[in-house]
Design goal:
The longest helix has 12 residues. Helices cover 25% and strands 21% of the residues. The protein is globular, with a radius of gyration of 16 Å. A 10-stranded mixed sheet has the order 1-8-2-3-7-4-6-5-9-10, with helices on both faces. It is α/β, with parallel strands linked by helices. It starts with a strand and ends in a 9-residue tail after the last strand. It has a single domain, classed as DHBP synthase, CATH 3.90.870.10. It is built from 5 helices and 10 strands, in the order βαββαβαββαβαβββ. A hairpin with a 6-residue loop joins strand 9 and strand 10. This is Threonylcarbamoyl-AMP synthase. It holds the Pfam family Sua5_yciO_yrdC. One of its GO terms (molecular function) is double-stranded RNA binding. It comes from Aureicoccus marinus.
């Protein structure tokens, strides 16, 4: 299997050319690793079923059982995937995003076919220029999951060159956006009667 592409993207000013290469890779069903405002993520185009199946296989899970986040550029497309949100929920999202949070929201009937049976979706709007630019260039969200280190002590690898070494034969492209973080997002479930913290990560709970 050929080695993945390794592409440098500068967070201060993500250039159109590398972004075009990344979006093209995603459209063709590629798996990419890219930086976020928390840890490096592994993702693919939400509309590409073959890519979703590859991602599930790589993670060792059944696609229909996968709990992945949808990386969105902002809140404007939320209604594409979620049911009508009440005012307090929308206000909470507005004051928290972009930011290091994953919000679990009730899904709607327009979810991609492979996610039709899911009652909820995890939404991420990272406070990081690179994933925002990638999904904006692609034109739709990417499905994302964190990459874990094989080292039992270091849970998340932060150095993109080390990530590339480890993953180059399993993915199609690794984005070098500089050193990443090692604290995952805070996960808050908003699909029930009130906010439920599933995992406390980088995002402060003061937003609740």
């Amino acid at each position: 299997m050929p080695s993945a592409q390794f592409i440098k993207v500068y967070p201060e000013n993500p250039a159109p050319r590398p972004l075009g290469i990344i979006a093209d890779c995603l459209r063709k069903g590629g798996l990419i690793i890219y930086p976020t405002d928390t840890v490096y993520g592994l993702g693919c185009d939400i509309t590409n079923t073959k890519a979703l199946q590859r991602l599930a296989q790589l993670k060792g899970i059944k696609l229909e059982k996968a709990n992945w986040s949808f990386i969105c550029p902002d809140l404007s497309r939320l209604s594409d995937y979620t049911r009508q949100l009440d005012n307090p929920t929308f206000k909470l999202l507005k004051r928290s995003l972009p930011g290091p949070y994953t919000f679990i929201l009730p899904g709607n009937n327009d979810l991609p076919k492979v996610f039709k049976k899911k009652k909820t979706v995890g939404i991420r709007v990272p406070d990081h220029s690179i994933p925002q630019a990638i999904v904006s260039t692609l034109g739709n969200p990417i499905v994302s999951t964190s990459i874990y280190d094989t080292d039992e002590i270091v849970e998340y690898t932060t150095d993109p060159e080390l990530i590339y070494e480890e993953w180059q034969n399993r993915v199609d492209l690794v984005v070098d956006g500089g050193f990443g973080g090692n604290i995952p997002s805070t996960i808050i479930d908003l699909s029930g009667d009130g906010p439920v913290v599933i995992r406390e990560g980088k995002g402060s709970l003061d937003v609740l």
